[in-house]
């Protein structure tokens, strides 16, 4: 596959920036599809500007393209984005891009979906690809509907459902956790037992390369998660290890911590920190994907890289 041309959407976002670098490093030529005129990101072999929600003519953008990696879309937000916005950005834009790809005879369409297409913010037991998908919010439903649209178009498609993604420049919950780890104070989190699956950008990029290189059609969804599922105290310890420090964790009853979260309007934060979301990547492993870093190694590397900035 080396030297083949990949069309990448979302190249200016957190995941897309990493993918542009990693795909280029793997020897792919990468043409970025941008929503508005901006400076072409470093590492791109070319760029085309257009609106994915209204692709009037994508033939030039997809000319000669061997595969598409579609990472653009409206991200999950706890504040509650209107369902129509998710429908436009995550379902319709994906469907129209895939239809254009089918007309252009693009070889493979790789869609960055989400574990939220499979389950809610927590789940009993281990989530696997054989479980019926049960999204619990508009974001998850939009990702699942986009996957279903791909299946109906008749293109060779694959969807990756990553769990919480982390890497340099990360935002949201992981950025908040990193800020917490940087504080000099002991943290009363040692008693929290909820386990959460993670995936680093290095490991997610490797998963994308795995499905790009796979010979033969795929036409299915894969969970993307590292084998470990650390507890929150384990995550803090790994981050602080990357900072050259000890864990600095002290016990506190989970009920007391939960009460503090409820009183400060952070009930969902408590649910995320105290409950389980453990997922298994059986399908990717069967294709030969093997994570480059453990979760502990990846979190320590994240802390070191962000400190160096």
From TrEMBL:
Superkingdom of the organism of origin: Bacteria
Location of the NAD-dependent epimerase/dehydratase domain: 6-216
Pfam families with a match to the protein in the record: Epimerase
UniProt signal peptide: none
UniProt protein name: NAD-dependent epimerase/dehydratase family protein
